[in-house]
Amino acid sequence: MGSLETERSVVGWAAKDPSGVLSPYTYTLRNTGAEDVYIKVICCGICHTDLHQIKNELGMSNYPMVPGHEVVGEVVEVGSDVTNFKVGDVVGVGVLVGCCRNCRPCESDIEQYCNKKIWSYNDVYTDGKPTQGGFAEAMVVDQKFLVKLPDGMSPEQAAPLLCAGVTVYSPLSHFGLKKSGLRGGILGLGGVGHMGVKIAKAMGHHVTVISSSDKKRVEAVEHLGADEYLVSSDATRMQEAADSLDYIIDTVPVGHPLEPYLSLLKLDGKLILMGVINTPLQFVTPMLMLGRKIITGSFIGSMKETKEMLEFCEEKGLASMIEVIKMDYINTAFERLKKNDVRYRFVVDVAGSKLDQ
């Protein structure tokens, strides 16, 4: 189909100020260009980053803001130059909707590191219109930033994979940690952490969940399949586990000391930071030097890695553990997320919600 000639008016749920309270908001989508795909949103996951953004905790929020970057939708119309998608396809949209396409990261298929990347929401598109996210009726997205869901994969189960899933998959792939037989740690058992356990186990790793309390032990071991559970305040067990892990995926989204976890790493072990934290983290250098250990970070994943991850999850039968809600519950869901009261990802049934109420 050709490009649409008129802008569409849609309803989403937006934060209007740093209180972070979402309410109905009507706005227009940009015109659909030749490379664009117009999608009707089916569902959208709630990520901890959404909480940071709606409350301006990173100091960069623009209002009104429609959050949501774990979006699954159905293709309604495609631009004249769209070749990868057709009407009726079920597709996913993640954290990004644009990049410059000619810098080193873009040319290397790691466009998430492009300095001119465009976020799915709280950003400005190339035409000057603000980007708005997936807690809305519809989106217009460049075909480069869409991925087709594998046949048979549930939209609600797939939504968290578009951020939480690929955020874990990308560093495991990039740092050569996909091979079986490794010993890995997952620090923090939330939305990202629970997918970390599932993906690492599917890769054949011995997985230890590290948490600040004992309350998630049964969930981690019996439901998610972790091999061990380590409480970070248990000094004896932490000492026994010293120098035992090849890597730790640190998903904690608030400030925390790094030394206790660095001590768990083997020689050349990697502490991979995932949590968005707006305060400095501290450590003493001998913790790194005496084991040639690495503190590094990783940001979501590329579109190429997103496709690989979805295929991997489909092949291994992996799915997110979710709680499906309607849009009228979203403010309560954000309050619960702030208290870590979710197992392990909220997913909003957007298509089944009355957005204008």
UniProtKB/TrEMBL annotation:
Xref: CDD domains: CAD1
Pfam families on file: ADH_N, ADH_zinc_N
UniProt keyword Metal-binding present: yes
The UniProt record lists the keyword Zinc: yes
InterPro entries on file: ADH-like_C (IPR013149), ADH-like_N (IPR013154), ADH_Zn_CS (IPR002328), CAD-like (IPR047109), ER (IPR020843), GroES-like_sf (IPR011032), NAD(P)-bd_dom_sf (IPR036291)
Enoyl reductase (ER) domain span: 20-348
Cofactor(s) in the UniProt record: Zn(2+)
Coiled coil: none
Keyword set, alphabetical order: Metal-binding, Oxidoreductase, Zinc
Subunit structure: Homodimer.
Similarity remark: Belongs to the zinc-containing alcohol dehydrogenase family.
Name of the protein described by the UniProt record: Enoyl reductase (ER) domain-containing protein
